[in-house]
Amino acid sequence: MIGISPDHCTEKELYKLNKAYTEAVNRAGGLAVILPYTADEYLIQEYIRMIDGLLLTGGLDLDPLLFGEEPLPGGGRLDPVRDRFELALIRYADMAGLPVLGICKGCQLMNIARGGTIYQDLYTQKPGVLKHLQEAPRWYPTHRIELDHETKLYGIIKKDSLRVNSIHHQAIKDLSPYFRAAARAFDGVIDAIEAREDRFVLGIQWHPESLWENDEGNYRIFKEFVKESLLYQGRKQDG
After folding, report:
1. pLDDT score at 236
2. How far apart are CA 49 and CA 115, in angstroms?
3. 8, 31, 161, 170: which has the highest count of C-beta atoms within 10 A?
4. DSSP per residue over 4-63, as a string?
5. CA dihedral 124, 128, 134, 136 (to 10 degrees)
């Protein structure tokens, strides 16, 4: 059972989620369930007890106050309700040793939760960057990344480089010591992070949920995540 954090339309008080996330999880052998927001710590702990893996999805910008900065003009819309909910999910998932996959905003939030920072706006804070907020369709990969051979991600994808879609203007700046960079774009921007410990905690800056149907490497990200979640389920039942 894979718990998925949805996005949030704050004006209409609606949850929303690209169905590609649930389709990728289900096709990889998991059972996708959407986790409604709550500030109730007991309910959040119940979520964590119920699920076997946590998927943090993309969404709006992250509040710079979360990493000790004042907002810059290049920042976009925020959702503090979602940010607080997902930070609590991450905290309890870490306590339980739950497998975690973070995509786009989810990747950035994982880094912030462990003491790292992000660029509030790549284009004004990091000179010479590539176009990371593509105007091509989501299923079309627009730039290349290079994978570090010494990482678990390389063992999953089994490629030196990969073309990815890129739909973000924020990105990891200072990497938390808990993580190592698993992939970078050719301009040096971190495109994937993973825990230094053996546990499956993987952050992906691109959107593999929109690429998995036509790319085996992106599909294997979800297969490995579900496999690790099944192993976690087994350990939970044995314990």
Report:
1. 86
2. 25
3. 170
4. EE-EEETTTTEEE--HHHHHHHHHTT--EEE------HHHHHHHHHH-SEEEE---SBPP
5. 150
Cα(39)–Cα(163) distance, integer angstroms: 38
Phi, psi angle pair for 135, to nearest 5°: -110, 10
Low-confidence ranges of the chain (pLDDT < 50): none
**Residue count (the chain):** 239
Pairing state of beta strands 14-16 and 118-119?
unpaired
Sign of the CA dihedral with 168 first, then 121, 81, and 94 last = positive
Question: 48-64 as b/e, with b when 16 or more CB fall inside 10 Å?
Answer: beebbbbbbbbbbbbbb
- Angle in degrees, CA 18, 219, 51, rounded to 5: 65
Was domain 2-238 assigned CATH 3.90.550.10?
no
The answer to whether 6 and 34 have CB atoms below 8 angstroms apart is yes
Task: Tell me the catalytic residues.
Answer: 104, 207, 209
Contact 206, 132 (CB under 8 A): no
Domain borders along the chain are 2-238
C-alpha distance from residue 46 to each of 41, 66, 201 (Å): 9, 25, 20
pLDDT the model gives residue 205: 98
Residue 84's H or E segment, with its range, is helix 80-96
pTM higher than 0.85, yes or no?
A: yes
Query: CA 79, CA 158: separation in Å to the nearest integer?
Result: 36
Q: What is the amino acid identity at position 160?
A: D
Distance separating alpha carbons of residues 75 and 100, to the nearest angstrom: 26
